[in-house]
């Protein structure tokens, strides 16, 4: 593996040390990341601020063209990025894994190129004309998690630069190398300093949220860290977008055909081995079809191969890190201790890497951690309910409000139930599907603000009202 550096102002920079990056499929080192100092962060912010002057005054058309060039550059390096992503993140090359993630990064970049925010007319009358203009904020600090590192980096970088901002991005210390490589690739088509990357431990993120030269933080990660970012950003009144944790519920209504919905339910819960913010994390099934839904889901899940992501036949990979694997294991142990019945999995092997088997636990209720907290891994609790009102109350009994789903053959009934979810997104007969032209974000403690589409782009601007 080559040695990766920080990338600041268009140049590689060493940092003050190095730290191992672990391959989750083996538990061994797959490379090292540079560790940035506070002075490196200052240099990155200065480089971004210097680039802002030229970048923010480019025409809208030029910036759209630059984004399209970014999409083509990522596309040209897609297999290299996918291999690197699998090595450090663990997800397979195939299925909904690394190649899919890089494809998504390209699609989101192209879609963001097409957006624009022309001035809006409020009034044009005898008293004069009033217009709303959208202006870039300045330097945006982007902080990303380890589950979808390249795609989320593009969700942060692309709208920020499309609106005329410049960026300093800090990936998770668990998956830093694919983001460094992404920013190097973008450096081939963007002016120096427009996108900079620094890597280091979590404390580097805290320095960013407090930094006086950064005008906005766009953060994706846990609710706990989101609270810290918000508190520390208060001092400088930074703009914030916070995309945080979720504990999404799905409600299966009694009119479903269990065989027809099994595949959709499975991928709703197990995409990226369950390490997805808006994955299905609690499944509520009506008493009348509970047993057949459990049986069909277990039969489908048993046929999905789990293995080292570099092997072309693997469709799911390991959990990304030992800490997360242990959280999942302890949630399952707690559920079983409280009467849960294992339909599949639940007993980790003792081979190398952070593998945890695909696990389904039936006959569980509120009061166990697998139901009440975000497990963020390949284990799904299936809870029995007897009335729709009861299921909706269970689903909303959470401080989280990211997504939810309703499964039914009656679209009108499904929409009626869906509208009662206290969540930022709700799906019918699928779970977790997102697209670049539809806003996505959490309510309650799942976040503040939205990403994607016009609404997401606006978050990277401030308003200037012009009275002419
Ligand atoms: P995390 O909160 O531990 O870390 C996220 C990022 O924040 C990392 O880059 C980390 O280094 C940095 N960080 C840590 N402490 C910080 C601090 N005090 N100040 C600033 N930055 C700090 O999250 P994670 O474990 O990497 O990711 C998993 C979580 O992310 C899950 O809860 C998941 O639901 C959530 N997530 C949410 C979305 C969404 O769109 N809502 C998407 C993906 C992941």
- Rounded to the nearest angstrom, the distance between the terminal CA atoms is 59 Å
CATH architecture assignment of the largest domain: 3-Layer(aba) Sandwich
CATH fold descriptor of the largest domain: Aldehyde Dehydrogenase, Chain A, domain 1
Count of distinct structural domains? 2
Read across the widest sheet, the strand sequence of neighbours is: 14-15-16-13-12-18-19
The CATH class of the largest domain is Alpha Beta
CATH homologous group name of the largest domain = Aldehyde Dehydrogenase, Chain A, domain 1
Q: Which molecules are bound besides the chains?
A: nicotinamide-adenine-dinucleotide
The helix content is 25-40%
What amount of the residues lies in strands? 15-25%
Decide which structural class fits the backbone: alpha/beta
Give a short account of the largest sheet.
Answer: 7 strands, mixed
Low-pLDDT residue intervals, each spanning 5 or more residues = none
Shape estimate: globular
């Amino acid at each position: 593996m080559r040695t990766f550096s920080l990338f600041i102002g268009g140049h590689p920079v060493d940092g003050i040390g190095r730290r191992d990056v672990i391959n989750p499929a083996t538990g061994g080192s797959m490379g090292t990341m540079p560790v940035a100092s506070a002075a490196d962060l200052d240099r990155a912010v200065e480089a971004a601020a210097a680039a802002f002057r030229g970048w923010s005054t480019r025409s809208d058309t030029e910036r759209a063209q630059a984004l399209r060039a970014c999409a083509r550059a990522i596309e040209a390096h897609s297999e290299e990025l996918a291999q690197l992503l699998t090595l450090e993140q663990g997800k397979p090359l195939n299925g909904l894994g690394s190649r899919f993630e890089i494809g998504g990064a390209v699609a989101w970049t192209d879609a963001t190129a097409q957006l624009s925010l022309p001035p809006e007319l409020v009034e044009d009358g005898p008293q004069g004309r009033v217009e709303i203009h959208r202006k870039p904020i300045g330097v945006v600090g982007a902080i990303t998690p380890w589950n979808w590192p390249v795609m989320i980096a593009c969700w942060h970088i692309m709208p920020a630069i499309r609106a005329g901002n410049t960026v300093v991005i800090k990936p998770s210390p668990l998956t830093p190398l694919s983001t460094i490589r992404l920013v190097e690739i973008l450096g081939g088509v963007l002016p120096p300093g427009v996108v900079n990357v620094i890597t280091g431990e979590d404390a580097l993120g805290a320095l960013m949220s407090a930094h006086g030269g950064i005008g906005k933080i766009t953060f994706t990660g846990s609710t706990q860290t989101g609270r810290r970012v918000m508190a520390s950003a208060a001092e400088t009144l930074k703009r914030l977008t916070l995309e945080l944790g979720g504990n999404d519920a799905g409600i299966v209504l009694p009119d479903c055909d269990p065989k027809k919905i099994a595949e959709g339910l499975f991928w709703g819960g197990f995409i990226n081995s369950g390490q997805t913010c808006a994955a299905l994390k609690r499944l509520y099934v009506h008493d009348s079809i509970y047993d057949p839904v459990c049986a069909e889901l277990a039969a489908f899940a048993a046929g999905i191969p789990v293995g080292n992501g570099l092997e072309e036949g693997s469709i799911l990979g390991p959990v990304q890190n030992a800490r997360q694997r242990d959280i999942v294991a302890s949630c399952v142990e707690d559920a079983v201790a409280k009467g849960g019945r294992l339909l599949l999995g639940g007993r980790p092997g003792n081979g190398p890497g952070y593998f945890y088997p695909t696990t389904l636990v039936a006959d569980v209720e509120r009061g166990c951690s697998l139901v009440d907290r975000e497990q963020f891994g390949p284990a799904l609790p299936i809870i029995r309910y007897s009335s729709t009102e009861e299921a909706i109350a269970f689903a909303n009994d959470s401080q989280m409000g990211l997504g939810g789903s309703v499964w039914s053959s009656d679209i009108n009934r499904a929409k009626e139930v869906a509208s009662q979810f206290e969540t930022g997104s709700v799906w019918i007969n699928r779970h977790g599907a997102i697209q670049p032209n539809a806003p996505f974000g959490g309510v309650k403690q799942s976040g503040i603000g939205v990403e994607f589409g016009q609404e997401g782009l606006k978050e990277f601007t401030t308003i200037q009202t012009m009275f002419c």
